[in-house]
TrEMBL record:
This is DEAD/DEAH box helicase domain-containing protein. It comes from Geodermatophilus normandii. The keyword ATP-binding applies. SUPFAM superfamilies: P-loop containing nucleoside triphosphate hydrolases (SSF52540). The keyword Nucleotide-binding applies. GO terms for biological process: interstrand cross-link repair; nucleotide-excision repair.
Length: 873
């Protein structure tokens, strides 16, 4: 690939469509995906092509089975009217299992009709038993409303499907509880509204026949661990009322579906994975924007932004009449990409198409969203730049192309987004545009990691003490906990935690069990990641704009920070950590901000160790102390550093779980890095490793932190730590430990294959490095990783979960690793650890404390991370 791409020039491939004769806008004249791609690339010299790989997804024919004879005839008639002439094979298999009383997870592709798998048994049962009820849980409001409409169109009128969520007016809630037999809700409402008031809900809970958990892969990390306990609490309360509902879970993208679903529900779940639905073929291109002449930190070369290329592709595709969705990573990007695409079209004299391009994101009014969905489905709109708000489950058919601006964080999301493309019988086009970061760079150059790999494990850890304790309190407040309840909540681990809670006075131990001893109800935030939320207040008006998570506030709303709220930008005038508030004013500067911080880390407990000759890998509990000390202003559009300002904020502590590698003097000598090069080599390896871990666990780099040092006081040697950015840990670091070889191999490949000379954002630079990416030694990192991989290769045992890539298309989900971890409560320093106070303070400050949310994202895609908040209720 050429490094001499003209700075700031529009992508070479985005020339006018003139000459291609393809200004068509009627669906019939849109060429299939492969031809579209060829057309887009016409005139680009092969060596300058941003396309790094093209993959073809084959057409799949449908396989049907006859309707089971138990299906309610009027339900069947309604379905037939809707065009479902015969159910697909997996629909019958899953429905039959659920009908027979087995909990089941349907893990088949996007738009494979997973809804029918639970609608058949559940709606039939509601007809057979006029008092039976169903609870349907969705992770987003948009999906909940979509499903409500679809059930309402199928159900017997006596079912009265209704939503019970944050938007349900107080006066309707009572009606829903009394009359609805298909209640659409979410885990948050179950946790806060239904379970604590179970007496009021007893007539529903007593007759609860099915619990449907749609898009179950959305329940991951700390939130997923909480949801696991909420479901255990639901099962316990149902048992009390004599009910034993069947759980039906659905996801197009969950690894090891049976294990993941069983861990989530806390009871056996069987998986149906053999997809019988037809699939149109697709051409899937990996695309990496070229390096430009712009430079970032320490003169590192920068790539043309993914947002710019996405806007260009959107304009090109719209010009060719292709109905296209462009998925971007922030609300602001949704608007800027749509705007850029419109500008390109106007410049090309295609004013007629300008109004056919729009943006879609959370934060729009529901009516606006419905209208956009309608216009897109009808073909009135041809191009829409959207956040992941359009990713899940919403049935938009007939798209010709999908562009993904950057890796959406998980392979699960990537396939969900890609799965939106596909018109019946027509091959569609999917383009993944890599951003300037290690994971995107890796994927652009390792197609097997996209197409030959199962989706990542949905990591949950219900034994996390920071989840378990509050959940046990919530359970005890609902009904006293008895010894018989404990196996469901973790057995001995739960018992030990209960004793601690009793000793702390939160619970009271009586002969019959554990009782809630606090006042009122336990206040447990199942989405929070720690710390009191910080209020964002507009100074001029006193208006409360929103809140940010306390754990993230120091690095996102410090004095001087650029803060983005619903696409509008504000600058923080003053942040007061004690009062938990930040005062802001509206401003739209040409820069973004990035916090810089220092971190110290001490080991609390080692839980598992792999000795690999001169290298040792550990996992366990650590204490991380982090202090935000300064921030940088960076130019929007290029990421160029403009200035740095000091900050005076107090340090904060996080007890969490980590994976760490130590290298003894022999290992360092073998890596051929001298004293001067060692800190930068370890630091660079740490950054790249953090960038790559999300390949294996459902997290993104903003969920992780790291620290590397040539001499750590607790290990007495060169050490690289990677830790979970959530109190108590979230299972990500442990996942890295379990898949160490695969993780580090991918890390090494990313660094070694990057075409930059001495490190750039695509390999070893981090967008959130508290040390301003200094020092970094790219070549040293490769040699250090080589030594570790050598030792791993010599090890007798495989990684516990180190399965090699297994082929397959990857889009149908199943297989892959999952972690069910056992926990040891963090209890003070570990015996045998030599602490040498004052020796070897970490010389290198690593990535910012994890959990730091992304830098507000400008059109450059500087920063990153998950921004859309449609998942929050
Ligand atoms: N057996 C069938 N024959 C024909 N069409 C079907 C059949 N089953 C479902 N469909 C249709 O397929 C479309 C997708 O169905 P559905 O929304 O249930 O898929 P899904 O797997 O839940 O999708 P997502 O991956 O978006 O969650 C719907 O329009 C539905 O009516």
């Amino acid at each position: 690939m050429s490094r001499e791409a003209p700075a700031g020039a529009a992508p070479a491939v985005h020339g006018s469509a003139a000459g291609h004769g393809s200004a068509a806008s009627s669906p019939g004249s849109v060429p299939p995906g492969a031809e579209l791609l060829e057309d887009l690339l016409a005139g680009t010299a092969e060596e300058e092509s941003p396309v790094t790989h093209v993959h073809r997804l084959a057409v799949r024919q449908s396989r049907t089975l006859p309707w089971p004879e138990w299906v309610d005839p009027s339900l069947r008639a309604r379905l037939e009217q809707q065009g479902v002439r015969e159910p697909w094979r997996h629909q019958v298999e899953a429905a039959q299992l659920a009908r027979e009383g087995s909990s089941v997870v349907v893990a088949t592709g996007t738009a494979s009709g997973k809804s029918l798998a639970y609608q058949l048994p559940a709606l039939t049962r509601l007809v057979e038993d006029p008092r039976a009820c169903v609870l349907y849980l969705a992770p987003t409001k948009a999906l909940a409303r979509d499903q409500l409409a679809s059930v309402a169109a199928l159900a017997d009128p006596s079912v009265r499907p209704a939503a019970y969520d944050g938007d349900t007016p107080a006066e309707e809630r009572d009606w829903v509880r009394r009359h609805s037999r298909w209640i659409v809700t979410n885990p948050d409402m179950l946790h806060r509204g239904v379970l604590p008031a179970h007496q009021r809900w007893s007539s529903t809970l007593r007759r609860l026949a099915y619990v449907v958990i749609d898009e179950c892969h959305a329940y991951r990390g700390v939130f997923g661990s909480h949801v696991g306990h909420v479901l255990r609490r639901l099962r316990r309360i149902c048992r009390r009322y004599g009910a034993d509902p069947v759980f039906v879970l659905a996801s197009a993208t969950v690894a090891e579906p049976a294990a993941a679903a069983t861990r989530l529900v806390g009871a056996p779940v069987v998986a149906v994975t053999d997809d019988g639905s037809p699939r149109p073929g697709a051409t899937f291109a990996l695309w990496e924007p070229p390096l430009t002449e712009h430079t970032g930190e320490h003169g590192a070369p920068l790539r043309r932004s993914a947002a710019a290329d996405t806007a260009g592709l959107l304009a090109d595709l719209v010009e060719r009449g292709a109905r296209t969705l462009a998925f971007v990573r922030s609300r602001r990007s949704a608007e800027t990409v749509a705007e850029q695409a419109r500008r390109l079209l106007a410049d090309r004299g295609r004013g007629d198409l300008v109004r056919r391009v729009d943006s879609y994101r959370g934060g729009y009014l529901p009516e606006e969203r419905r209208e956009l969905e309608r216009a897109l489905s009808a073909g009135d709109l041809l191009g829409v730049a959207t956040t992941n708000a359009l990713e899940l489950g919403i049935d938009i058919a007939g798209l010709d192309a999908v562009v993904l601006a950057g890796y959406p964080g998980t392979l699960a999301s990537l396939w969900q987004q890609a799965g939106r493309a596909g018109r019946a019988q027509r091959e569609s086009l999917v383009v993944f545009v890599a951003r300037d970061d290690p994971l995107d760079h890796y994927l652009a150059h390792h197609p097997r990691a996209v197409f030959g790999r199962p989706v990542e494990a949905t990591v949950t850890d219900p034994a996390n003490p920071y989840v378990l304790g509050p959940q046990l309190c919530s359970a005890a407040a609902e009904l006293p906990l008895t010894p018989e309840d404990l196996p469901d909540f973790g057995g001995l681990v739960a018992e030990a935690r209960l004793e601690e809670l009793a000793a702390a006075g939160d619970l009271r131990r009586r002969p019959a069990g554990w009782y809630w001893a606090g006042r009122g109800r336990p206040d447990v935030d199942i989405r929070g990641s720690g710390g009191e939320p910080v209020a964002i207040i507009e100074g001029d008006t006193g208006r409360l704009l929103g809140t940010v998570d306390g754990g993230a506030a120091h690095s996102t709303v410090h004095t001087g920070a650029l803060y983005v709220h619903r696409g509008d930008t504000f600058v923080v005038d003053e942040f007061d950590p004690e009062d938990a508030c930040a005062v802001v004013h509206a401003e739209n500067p040409e820069w973004t901000t990035v916090a810089r911080d220092v971190t110290d880390l001490s080991i609390v407990a080692i839980e598992r160790t792999r000795r690999l000759g001169t290298v040792t890998a550990h996992t366990g509990v650590v204490d991380v102390t982090n202090q935000v000390v300064a921030y940088q202003r960076r130019r929007a559009g290029t990421g160029e550093v403009l200035a740095e300002f000091p900050l005076d904020l107090p340090p904060r502590q996080l007890r969490t779980r980590a994976v760490w590698l130590t290298l003894d003097a022999d290992a360092v000598a073998r890596a051929d890095v001298d004293d001067l090069a060692l800190p930068g080599s370890l630091h660079a390896a740490e950054h790249a490793a953090i960038g790559i871990l999300p390949l294996l666990a459902t997290c993104d780099r903003w969920d992780l932190g790291g620290l590397s040092t040539a001499l750590h006081p607790d290990t007495g040697t060169a050490t690289v730590f990677v830790y979970d950015g959530h109190p108590g840990g979230a299972g990500f670091a442990e996942r890295g430990y379990a898949a160490l070889r695969r993780w580090l191999r991918a890390t090494r490949a990313t660094v070694a294959s990057c075409e930059c000379d001495s490190g750039c954002p695509s390999c070893v630079q981090s967008p959130k490095c508290g040390n301003g990416n200094d020092p970094l030694d790219k070549a040293g990192a490769v040699r250090v990783l080589d030594v570790v991989l050598d030792e791993l290769a010599a090890e007798d045992t495989e990684d516990t979960e180190d399965t090699e890539d297994t082929g397959g298309t990857g889009d149908d989900g199943p297989a892959g690793g999952g972690t069910g971890t056992t926990h040891v409560m963090p209890t003070g320093p570990v015996r045998g650890l030599l602490r040498r106070p004052g020796v070897g303070r970490p010389a290198v400050r690593p990535e910012a404390e994890a959990g730091d949310p992304p830098t507000p994202e400008g059109p450059t895609d500087a920063g990153g991370g998950y921004v859309e908040d449609d998942l929050v209720f």
